[in-house]
Amino acid sequence: MVLSKEICKVLSYESFVHAVSGATGSVVAMSVFYPVDTVRARLQVEEPEKREKSGTFSVLNEIFKYEGISSLYRGLVPVLQSLCLSNFVYFYTFHSLKAMQGRGNGNQSAFKDLLLGSIAGMVNVMLTTPFWVVNTRLKMNGVAGKPVEKFNNLLDGLIFIGKTEGFKGLWAGAIPSLMLVINPALQFMFYESIKRRLTKIHANVHTTSFFFLGALAKAFATFVTYPLQLVQTKLRTCDRSLKQDASTTKILFEIARKYGFKGLYRGIEAKIWQTILTAALMFATYEKIALIVGKALFTKSRTKV
């Protein structure tokens, strides 16, 4: 009986609404700000000395001028597919765990949000890492000395890497990714904590507030975890400058030794722009969709009664 109640909480409409809203919001946001993410990936993978200017908008203009607008959107479709799946898994897991631990019992706290966000992040990483490996390869296809891949979509990429590189290739960068679950966990902890305070003060919080709150939460999480994100990107693209079987810690020390502390934050300007704007628009869209769908379901259930 108890088990069936817990299953009902996991399979609830509320968790599904949050998952669909989060996935839709992420796709909308990434579609708008994808060129900035392309700049971020280039700066993380390329050697610093290969570019005179490393400012986000300078590199954006350079890619547009010499490679065309298509280069700014290279790999967009598989990224959106992966992002949609990834955020659906994350939001569904996070809100299902919240429901199981008693969402409405008034015992929510920043620590619980951090813990639940970390668990949801680990589930997400183990299920979706192969998709991110493929779309990172496609985004950097033939760029900055990277090999030209023999696939051009998500499914072909999964099959090709699975056959040629096996499990290790598909889950490349999984270790820093697991360590990086602290990023969305910190983001959700910050976001949910401030959101609870806002909703206590104001019954109806404007969408603009969620936009800026999402931006602030993501900026905080990104700065704390950026060096790990740098390593993650290098591993996913099979960076030739890395020693074979190099661990995450060794790569971090090698980058710091070669380029100093500044090297660990190479490309952070582009990442901050991309991640803040994307997260802000994603949370604003997510809250709006969740509110509309939630009201529609509530009205429908009352009509049936």
**Spatial gap, N to C terminus:** 26 Å
- The name of the CATH superfamily reads Mitochondrial carrier domain
Q: Helix amount, in percent?
A: over 70%
CATH architecture: Alpha/alpha barrel
User: Could you name the CATH class?
Assistant: Mainly Alpha
Count of separate structural domains: 1
Provide mean pLDDT, rounded.
80
Q: Enumerate the spans where pLDDT stays under 50 for 5 or more consecutive residues.
A: 300-305
Beta-strand content:
under 5%
Description:
This protein has one domain (about 1-305): Mitochondrial carrier domain (Mitochondrial carrier fold). About 75% of the residues lie in helices and about 0% in strands. It has 13 helices and no strands. The chain has helices at about 1-10, 15-45, 55-65, 70, 75-100, 110-140, 155-165, 165-170, 175-180, 180-200, 205-235, 250-260, 270-305. It is globular, with a radius of gyration of 20 Å. Residues about 300-305 have low confidence and may be disordered.
How would you describe this structure in keywords?
305 residues; mainly alpha; Mitochondrial carrier fold; 13 helices
Q: What is the strand and helix layout of this fold?
A:
Blueprint lengths: L1 H9 L2 H33 L10 H12 L1 H4 L3 H25 L9 H30 L14 H11 L1 H5 L3 H6 L2 H20 L5 H30 L11 H12 L8 H37 L1
Helix pairs in contact: 2-3, 2-5, 2-13, 5-6, 6-7, 6-10, 10-11, 11-13
